[in-house]
Structure prediction request, 588 residues.
Amino acid sequence: MNYFEELNKDYRFKEGFHTCINCGTCTAVCPAAEFYRYDPRKIVSIVQTRDNDAIEALLKSETIWYCGECMSCVTRCPRKNGPGLVVMALRDLSIRLGFFTESEKGRQIYPLTKALNGNVLNLGYCVHPETFTYRDHPESGPVFEWALAHKKDVYERLGANFGKEGPGALRKIPQEDLDELKAIYDVTGGTERLQLVEHYSKLKAEQMGMTMEEYTEYTFTHCSPGHFNDGQ
Amino acid sequence: MIYQGKQKIWSDYQKELPSDGWFYVRSCIRQSFFPGSEKYFLEICRDLLGHDIYESPHHTTCGGIAYHSDTIPQETAMTIVARQFALMTEAGYKNLVTSCITSFGNYTEILETWREYPELEARIRENLWKATRREFEKPEYLAHASDLVHKFRAEIGERAVHRLVDVRTGEPLRIVEHIGCHYSKMFPHKGIGGAEYPCVLSGMVESWGGEVIDYPERRHCCGFGFRQYLVKANRGYSVSNTHKKFESMEPYHPDAIITNCPGCPYFLDRWQYVISEQTGKTYGRGGYGIPVLTYEELAGLVLGYDPWDLGLQLHQVAVEPLLDKMGVDYDPDAKYLGLNKKDILRPGLPTVLKCC
Prediction:
């Protein structure tokens, strides 16, 4: 497969990739580059070489998963490139080819896919207090530990329509609307994407000698040394 | 009016928005962490000021967080948004206002991409028809909810019960404004003031009597980073970026921070708690943090609404120092009560960060 040609089919790549002058402005403003061993300039530069082996190495690397998609680079590039958009296209291709399981940060796609799309398809929103737990989010603080423990009362107090029919915050999304979301996933490749991620992740979990529960927990929580600029 | 020179450049970054006829779509994060903010956006703009803003119970997420976490294809995200447009069209509305900044960026990106690649828009229309039998018109105007509050800022200011002034000294309160990255970094001409000098929040602050603080990392991301926060193993990225902002703003002694993205106030609030637990450092005076408010919460305080009705008890950083400066009356004993004064206990206290 010619990876550059494949990337060039992605509308984000078409928009985000023009001739790069290697000035490094994107890296200078990048929130990820300050903390991770990450350099968006190099990513665009590698893609620009059209070297198939180098692009394949990128697709299997940790590097492409460090970006936070804040798109600060888009504002600053003097050539109207969007390294963040190039990264989105690289990630998409890495997932489609199953290369994402080759890197620790890439493997995190599995818990992310399960959690976010489970919420979308079951609750109608990407993030929802029904599945947001203090155990997974101790940074939400004692105030949110309390709020989650009393969520019906807390949300009712603040005027939400928690789990009920009709308009309002945190309302119950009617089943016919959730069915439409599912149909959209089926028609647009969303369902296929979920199955693909599941398939490659199962293979990787097997290779790592883990059950899927262990793999989910491990990919969600484990951070090996070597990702950060300070050597951590 | 004929604009020239700098005026001409500045005019490119203004948004002419209608006052009425808005179809409102909620935010995954704002409704979960700041439900009072969404309630009071409607209460203020629709019920108090009388503008036509409508919410359909059938709308859903735009899928933006799943999309920017790279878990769904672009066409899936686009077709979910197309369904929102269809609901807007069916309800007889022509303008769409989003509660979320990720959504605002997502809708903007989609409309801009379709403008450039009409064949993609045609495919999405086909997808939507196949999946739902729905059709849609594109919105004539797209706004973030903060754009509307900015538009109505003078009307709010005229009704102000409290101004952004320290009642003890008469000095303007010193406010840091933080704009969500996806508001205007991708498409600067879609945000009021662009990406360099966004004035959607500073305009509110100045209208209501406050002073906006300029500081070196004013435009730096809060550190959400989608997968960089959502995955537990990556949260060092998120807290490190917030830390960078606080270290940068600390010498300017802000009285409060105002934000327009739903995620930013959560991160700027909660990471202050985490930094205090990890390092013992707090950024406010006397062991408190710097209160971080949504623009709806700040507008609500200006208009004299009860802080606990607005939902300020869901912040980890105590807001009382700000309330005292503004001269807002509040009942400390009512802070954590449920509906009809129901006792639902109280949260535990952080180890370091002072709370009320």
